[in-house]
Fold each of these.
Amino acid sequence: MDAHIEMAGSDVVPAVGNLIGASLHLTFRDIYYTANKGKNARKILHGMSGTFKSGHLTAILGPSGAGKSSLMNILAGLRTSGAEGQIQVNGVDRKLKKFRKQSAYITQEDHLLSNLTIDEYIMTAANLKLGNKVSSSERKSKVELVMKTLGLTHSRHTQIGSLSGGECKRLSIGLELLNNPDILFLDEPTSGLDSSSSLQCVALLRDIARSGRTVVATIHQPSSRLLDYFDHLYIVASGMCIYQGPIGSLVPYLQTANLECPSYHNPADFVMDVACGEYGDVLPVLVSTIENGRLVYQEIYGSTSVMPSPPPKSRTDDATDVTITVTGNIPKKKKIKTYPASFHTQVAVLLERTWRTMWRDKMLTKVRFVTHFVLGLLVDTMYWLGGDDAASILNNASMLFFNLLVILFASTMPTVVTFPMERNVLLREHLNHCYCPNRHPQKFLEHFNMDESSYYWSVVGMLVFFIAVRVTGYFALSFKLKSMR
Ligand SMILES: Nc1ncnc2c1ncn2[C@@H]1O[C@H](COP(=O)(O)OP(=O)(O)OP(=O)(O)O)[C@@H](O)[C@H]1O
């Protein structure tokens, strides 16, 4: 381990120890996933099972297009339509609403506002996620702890735009750690990082797992050094599980199917080649040996053991396609308070954040000033002396209407146009019940059967409509002015 990693490790372990997570074991059984409906339906996952234990860092490994992200999205509750199967937390069927509070999902790309410093970013997130019930001093100490945990204390006053890829990734992880999730899902946390930063990031994840959390990460082509940090390996090929168990047992397991990993060869590279079919059609053998993830390959005994079996009776949960078990009386629905921070706190915190980003983004602010000034001049020329005459009362009304339109569109347009880019951020925040627990952007698009291209077309349509309203308004007004003269 190089000096860089050791520094991160020694910084991280005691600090993470203070952020203890409840032990939640995640078990899933017979997960099927079909993308799209009707003619375009495509089966992606074929009855996968598995178990991810708390205190373990699990890697989901597999070639591109094998179904890693699909599986993780289903387990995280991000994807529900088209998915079937049973998902349990500590042997009890997953309740999606509760599970979203217990888990966090960190996407591959870091969607961070570049103008804020680490300090400001974490404090803003703490104010929103921890809410008013946690005192200001407690919030501050939690922020300090998270920064120390992630080794970000030294760069606390650096703006996000100037951070390295590794620091951005650690910040994304830190933001999710604030509300102390018990299960952490990470989609390709090492993508775009150099080997040293990747090791540092995975070492951090292992320390987080050691504090009693379940940490699951999809990973692409890990080096053998990186692989050593993981406790548990779950290998996916063509939507099925071909191995589940400790890293050290992978090579002996492959030997049972007459697949000999060459000496000094990275087992991860070898198993990827196997998964891609370079060693013949061995996938059915491997899938049936491990029973598509129902079994865990044991390192010590060189054998497989059966996962704890979930109870059989089930009905379909209305929020998901995943089945849930019915036992005894159904408890009365409790009203769950979705926002930790009050409405006023949210408004105040977000206004402050917006003000900071606007103030620091001088270029955008100048462009906005110029745009409004030019628009103001245009409106002025169009309605010049319109209000002097009582007969022009209609012009006054139309000017007020026009101004309202400008204010409305000018303020909503940036949000509307950047919505697809922001979608992942919203999605993540949605999962953590941060700001918008009931507004699921992906669901919103699915509901209206919209993909991103149709979304863009609707934005273009709105723009055309806006321009048409303005042009007709202008001609109608000049015609009216002429007829009045
Ligand atoms: N909505 C969809 N419609 C059609 N095909 C889909 C859809 N979603 C996923 N797929 C397909 O399912 C397969 C698995 O996708 P997934 O993103 O889970 O793979 P992956 O293992 O995570 O790949 P990568 O490592 O490249 O991200 C891919 O072939 C993908 O094209």
Amino acid sequence: MLDLLQSMEVVLSVAALVLFVLYYLTKSRPNLPPGPPSWPIFGSALSLQKMGLNMIESIREMRAKYGDVFRITRFGRHFIYVNGMENLREIFIKRADAFSDRPSNYHTEYILKGHGILASSGTIWKEHRTFALTTLRGFGFGRRCLESQIMEEVSCLSDKIAALDGKPFDPNEYIHVSVSNVMCSIAFGKRYEHSDADFQHMLTLVTKLLIVPRRPVLGMFPFLGKLPGDFFGAKELHAIEDEVKDFVGRIISEHKEGFDGENIRDYIDAFLLEQTKHQNNEDSTFSEEQLVCTLRDFFLAGSETTTTTLKWSWAFLVNHPEIQSKMRAEIDDVIGSRPVSLADRDKMPFTDAVLTETLRAGNIAPFALPHTASYDVNWNGYLIPKGATIWPCLDSVMNDDDMFTDPEHFKPERFLDSEGKRLGNEKSVISFSLGRRVCLGESLARMEMFLFLVTIIQRFELKPSPTHRIPSLHGVVGTAHAPRPYHICAIERT
Ligand code: HEM
């Protein structure tokens, strides 16, 4: 009996200690931005149960209730949502020194180990973001020399679609392979056939990486990832990342064999050359792991986003045949039947407006990517604590009805005056985010969107499929805001 009482005493003491530590770790701090009521340990979880599953709607509702800058607390971690153009500029541009790092979590610490560009912070991020921007500009980001590489993919995609002979199809795979091939040309110096099983598999893995749910609790208690089974999804994440890294690693090995410092073929070669310059520096960050993670980031950040935006553009144009016809009339007028060139864009304000409106209404990154506060910041009377996750709510600008009347409708004319000339208000469309972390591939994405979309509308009429529903304009919110899968027909013009 005494033994039992003693054992119970030990168990109760340990439980009390664990609760005390959890309470201490998760207790609220004074002066945080407003938000739903928060309790020690559970944070706002209990108040959030009633929130809907649609993240965009939930965040809009909370903004209406708590104001432009509000907070949610979960298991001791603070998540701060920043809404409205002025606040976004204040925080991510004027206070960029404090709010440009990425939050650390299980994925960044235990899988990526701080490598890459997308999720890294501090010196490694600065050094490699600068190197990537300089190198990619050298390869023609935003310039004409990349145009022919993109056009090779565009014409391949266009021929694949012509071969369908007007039959209904789901454009996802076609666009994804073509857009990813542009990235492959820049990064690996090679492209893959649409039927290449290895490449298809790699793209599926990258897509999966975006949808595997992340468990914030793993960041607090990483040992949970090692428990038998895979309740927290850590093993699945490790397995996918390992396969992606293997794929990229094999291509890096091939490059090492054929490396010639006098003939830089692609991003991998440029990195290997830089590596040789740092070979006597023990602290160099130009490691193989860094290269692997950077290439992985290019695919993750560059393929899915541009694919999703192009899918939105096709869905909008099938739903709005009058806009599609007007765009085609401009193409016929300015370009005729010759292949499109980037130089045509200046003379095509309506097409430009369609692309800008696709970025706005598609709203593909409603909350961009998470940032973190590098130190405690007092902002407008509130404390934004070090380590808090800060979400830039780009959605609050894209759908701001003071900036864009009737924002829920697709209206390219909002960017044009009564004579069809550009109004110059497209700068308010901040789909690539803002501040020091602004999308690194923006100019490539804009080139791709223009060349891909114009070529398709020049050659085909996009129509609803007679055997499927017209593409829905209500998207699915995951890591990105994507259109629901759809089928359409592409009828070749005579
Ligand atoms: C329409 C297409 C695209 C959209 C809408 C888009 C949007 C974004 C957004 C919202 C961010 C997060 C910015 C932030 O943290 O505040 C981002 C980051 C990034 N994007 Fe894009 N992106 C697109 C295409 C691309 C392409 C083609 C690349 C190719 C390299 C790319 C590479 C990156 C990288 C590397 C980052 C991380 C930058 C950093 O953390 O410093 N993106 N993008």
Amino acid sequence: MTVAHILESLRGGLVASCQPVRGGPLDQPAHVAALALATLAGGAVALRLEGLPDLKATRPLTSAPIVGLVKRDEPGTNVYITPLLSDVRDLALAGADIIAFDATIRERPVPVERLVAAVHEHGKLVMADCSTFEEGLAAWKAGADFVGSTLSGYTPHSPALDGPDLDLVRALGKAGVRVIAEGRLHTPEDARAALHAGAYAVTVGSALTRLELMTKRFVDVLRDAPVEA
Ligand SMILES: CC(=O)N[C@H](C=O)[C@@H](O)[C@H](O)[C@H](O)COP(=O)(O)O
């Protein structure tokens, strides 16, 4: 798939992040592949997949662009999304089209510029997962092809919000950054608001593929509601 094709297919569309609750009943590569196909059947234009087993199970089944990442606990750092050059290589070889990594200002084993270069050397596109405007702009200037609001709310120096960080999306969009809104988009209205705020595309995860969490949202509301029947 060419870069132009990937860019065009993502524009204004929904990226389905298929990352089940780890250890839960859907946490099997075959189930993740099925979730991915179901979201594509519903109109998602691309997938976001974590971990090599899930990526390898899904890649042969679709030509839709895949954002790949690995999460790992790396000693001495809080950076857990694709921290290493070996992760970039593994994701590239497993067929990711876009490789996402943490581009926050936290202590990291490999500098952002080096990760950007490695992704491009493999002929893949970069998605820089950020938590603030400064991080996003820096990653964009370092050559990222997409900047995600993914990590807003997940670093100590970003705001803790219940919903998506649309202010971050708006600020990055205004600065000319190709920004993907990601994180705590729970409803179609959230997705539309993100596009209005300037997002190039929108990634939704839990609301589509973490059934335990979405079920719990209903259950919690019912528990607190008076029963009138
Ligand atoms: C912070 C972090 O590690 N985010 C991860 C990144 O891949 C995933 O756990 C999220 O599910 C994904 O960003 C989509 O967000 P939401 O599930 O809120 O729609």
